[in-house]
Amino acid sequence: MASITIRRLEEATKKRLRRRAALHGRSMEAEAREILKESLAKVWTSSGNLAEDVRRIFAPLGGVVLRIPERQFYWEPPGSSGPEYDYRDRS
C-alpha cells in the first residue's frame, strides 16, 4: 500500500478529524482513509445540463423555496397615458 503525508493541515480540520475518528472508534489515519475511500467511490457523471447537475448535487441538503413577488410597475410606461407632446416647430 502507498503512503501519503498531508502538510499544512489547518488545526480546526485536524480537530474535526480527531472528533470524527473518535466517534467512529478509529484512529485519525483510519478515519482519513475511510473519508478518502467514500469520497472517491462516488462516480461523477455530468448530464450535460448545468442546472440539473447543480440540483442533483444539492438535493440531499434540502430545498429552498424562493418566493418571487409578482412584477409591479411603479411608473407609467411611455405612451400609456399623459399629455401628448407636439415637437413640430411652431415659429
Instruction: Name the helix and strand elements from N-terminus to C-terminus, one letter apiece.
Output: HHH
Strand content: under 5%
SS-based class: mainly alpha
Low-pLDDT parts are none
Terminal-residue CA separation: 97 Å
What is the radius of gyration computed over CA atoms, rounded to a whole number of angstroms?
Answer: 30 Å
Strand element count: 0
The major sheet is characterized as:
none
Helicity level = 40-55%
What is the 3D shape? Answer: elongated
Number of helices: 3
Mean pLDDT over all positions: 84
Features:
91 residues
Concise account of the structure shown:
This protein is mainly alpha-helical and 91 residues long. It has a domain at 8-41.
